């Protein structure tokens, strides 16, 4: 009975969110798990995502009905809302200050690591006419990129 329910949920999620592969669905579940570990969401499943989407759409509808200004999207489809959440979770990870995320200790990014990343990826920090931004101008961006790599490494580890 449990396996049948689990299978049905996967089929529904595949159709609702337009997943093209099982791997894509597993990746999203890993991202939801990370968000749950960070305390951003209470449950890491598709039913909970759909409930949050319905709630978000309801809030938008209420604001519109009250004549309030709504910036951006006025109705989220399931796929749009999932993408919105996953983007938000990744951004939250880059500024997360906890010492760990689930069983993963947070890496302390050193100044040397940031400088090395900058030196190895100067093309990312080049202006239109070829002159580069100075390290001091992009140090925070470099750290964000390193945090994004850490996030991706955790996802890949979960998928193994």
How would you describe this protein?
Strands 1-2 form a two-stranded antiparallel sheet. The chain folds into two domains: 1-97, no CATH class; 107-160, no CATH class. The chain has helices spanning 2-17, 22-37, 46-65, 78-95, 111-120, 135-159; strands at 100-101, 104-105. The protein is globular. It is 66% helix and 2% strand. The chain is an all-alpha fold and 160 residues long. It contains six helices and two strands.
Q: Specify the number of helices.
A: 6
- The succession of helices and strands, N to C, reads HHHHEEHH
Largest sheet features: 2 strands, antiparallel
Could you state the oligomeric state of the chains shown? single chain
Count of structural domains:
2
Shape: globular
Strand order of the largest sheet: 1-2
Instruction: Report the C-alpha radius of gyration, rounded.
Output: 19 Å
Beta strand %: under 5%
Percentage of residues assigned to helices: 55-70%
Look at the structure and give the mean pLDDT: 92
**Straight-line distance between termini:** 27 Å
Label the structural class: mainly alpha
Strand tally: 2
Low-confidence stretches: none
